[in-house]
Amino acid sequence: MANEEDDPIIQEIDVFLARSLLEKLYLFQYPIRPASMTYDDVTHLSAKIKPKQQKVELEMAIDTLNPNYCRSKGEQIALNVDGTCTDETSTYSSKLMDKQTFCSSQAASNVSRYAAAVYKKGELHLTPLHGILQLRPSFTYLDKADAKHREREAANEGGDSSQDEAEDDVKQITVRFSRPETEQARQRRVQSYEFLQKRQAEEHWVHLHYYGLKDSRSEHERQYLFSQGHGLAENTELIKSPSEYLMMLMPPSVEEENDKPMAPSNVLSMAQLRTLPLADQIKILMKNVKVMPFANLMSLLGSGTDSTAVLRCIQQVAMLVQGNWVVKSDVLYPKDTSSPHSGVPAEVLCRGRDFVMWKFTQDRWVVRKEVAAVTKLCPEDVKDFLEHMSVARINKGWEFMLPYDEDFVKKHPDIVQRQHMLWMGIQAKLEKVYNLLKEHLTPKKQEAQSAHPLLVSGEQRVNMAKAKVKQNYGQLEKEFQKQKAEMKSNDTSAKMDVSNIRIKEEPVSDEEPMDTSAYEGMNNGIVNGLHPEEDSTDSLNGHLPGGCIDRVAQELKAFVSSTFKKQFVLTLSELKRLFNLHLASLPPGHTLFSGISDKMLQDMVLDTGCKQILVPFPPQTAASPDELKVYALWEAGDTYDQHRQVLLEIFSKNYRVRRNVIQNQLSQECGEDLNKQEVDRVLKDCCVSYGGMWYLKGTVQS
After folding, report:
1. What is the DSSP string of 257-303?
2. Which of 10, 553, 687, 694 lies most in the core, judged by the most C-beta atoms within 10 Å?
């Protein structure tokens, strides 16, 4: 209220909308002229317009008598353009540059918010503008001068040559017939810059008659800028509420939206996406996401979308793989396209990708080398196929990226059956094209698999194992008490039978089920043969006899020390693997067979001068807990201890590092310029290179 009192209304002005020049009124913006030159001084010689393009050319006279006009320069320009002869085609008939041409360009594509206003007798009359054109000088006369110059040079060269040389030699002419133009080639030609320029040049000029500022015709036309009637019926557009009136004066800008940079092709605007037909929405989503569960697709399409219509559309652009929808190959690789890596046509790429999709309908795992051997495609193309729908696992292969969607399979058995029939047809085509062997057609462990891959979570496996252990608990307890009694009666308890103790080994792959048989049940609830609740120096069958603990510690320390002096950096998983191999090479009855727990092994690593390196693994890592524990030898007693320590400090803050960063850090911390051989030695001791980056040994995740 205070602001309104400080800014009172001084005058109210009536506003009228004039319609007489609607869609006829243009605003011309001339270049800046000297202050001494006014509109009255300008003489328009001619004017012409191309209505469709809204392009105007004005020819304006130059005052050659003005003291600021350079006559010698004007004569030189006229001579360069027209030469010495004057005729009807001459640009400057007076042998003097006495005129200049101005060519227009659109200043704004959307002029609906602009209007010309005339204020008269307390009334404001508005006429909407149909276009705003900026006039700039045209220098086509310079092109004409260059053409004249080239003609004179060609004439001079032709005059110097002899008559014999002037005669044209007989030359062989090759006649070629153009191929029929395809639809795609025609669209490219129509959208080309040359075609658009040609279309613009084909439009004929419409010559106009120019009326001066004080001409009677101009005075007459100027009256149309005023509203012809002041009644309410003439200006109903202005009888609006304040908000509607402001919206009319300042409508939402379409131009600003067009000026915004376009998003990348793989970035979707959900607001724009939902304005498209349902089939196009699904096609765009699947083309960008490539693999999607049906529930996720429904959530992206918004509430109220008919699931039946979605199912009908999704089958046109995607195939069902393990209960999830994977985009069809011909959607990603349309006809008449080729591979960006090898140039292979789209038809071959579609067959190769269909083979990969079909393999995932048989198994959750696919081996890249097998795909490359069958399809005969380059590694880059095969990698693209696999990255579309799977994730690489170290030493295992490529696993389908989404879990089996059992809910969709149960709810839509008819869709599943239809998709199964389609895959049977694709399989028949692949057999003919690739001459598939029986081993390619039969999934691994087919007799143990159901119609779809059975996924068992880690918690379910643990519950199954616990149930089996409870069933065999009585038998296991009897065997345990029997072995304990035998150990007490045997003075040489260190010479235990190796067959009764089994060292814990990690499963080779996730496909192997957890074995909880009665024979191997001895290791249930123990780590490397020890119960976790017991002391780390306790054996499986009670405490070791006097003196045996020291011998076990010495043997274990010798193994850990020698191993780290060779490897320098090891994960706990790799250390346990090497320890198991070491045990396998020992004779029966060795002291190390008394049982070594994970805790005892880790404590011994720290006692031998090693340190745990807290490597910042990426959040999405699939590494096991033992693979996340990284140990390194801190002091080896050689000249490279300081260099290795600096390197380990780098990897305690970075998961992967470039070589130049490592070399710069080593030079700064060690205070010397290391040569390539010294840096290679340090990197070889502790790191491995993968994809142009350096990682600590055992920490690479791909």
Report:
1. HHHSPPPPTT---HHHHTTS-HHHHHHHHHHHH-EE-HHHHHHHH-T
2. 687
Structure tokens at 118: 């005339």
Q: Indicate the burial class of 496 (C-beta count within 10 angstroms; 0-12, 13-18, 19 or more).
A: buried
Q: Is the pLDDT of residue 459 over 80?
A: no
Top-confidence residue, 192 or 179? 192
Distance (Å) of CA 12 to CA 147, 156, 604: 62, 76, 94
Specify the pLDDT at position 472.
63
Domain ranges in the chain? 12-85+92-149+195-229, 270-434, 547-696
Show the 3-state SS of 548-585.
Answer: HHHHHHHHHHHHHHHHHHHHCEEEHHHHHHHHHHHHHH
pTM score, whole prediction: 0.34
Pinpoint the alpha helices (H) of 473-547: 473-489
> What order of strands is seen across the sheet that includes strand 318-321?
291-292, 324-327, 318-321
Find all residues with CB under 8 Å of 499, minimum gap 6, and list them. none
Look up residue 687 and give its two tokens: 């790191």
B/e letters for 55-87, b = 16+ CB within 10 Å, e = fewer, are bbbbbbeeeeeeeeeeeeebeebbbbbbeeeee
pLDDT band at residue 524 using 50, 70 and 90 as cut-offs: very low
Cα-based distances in Å from 120 to 15, 116, 221, 466: 11, 13, 16, 97
Residue 405: pLDDT band (50, 70, 90) is very high
Q: Which of 569, 558, 295 is nearest to 409 (CA)?
A: 295
Cα–Cα nearest to 224, from 488, 420, 20, 380? 20
Q: How many CA atoms lie within 13 A of 141 on its CB side?
A: 24
Query: Rounded CA gap, 479 and 482, in Å?
Result: 5
**Sequence-separated (6 or more) residues with CB below 8 Å from residue 90:** 82
Q: Hey, what are 268's tokens? A: 């979707």
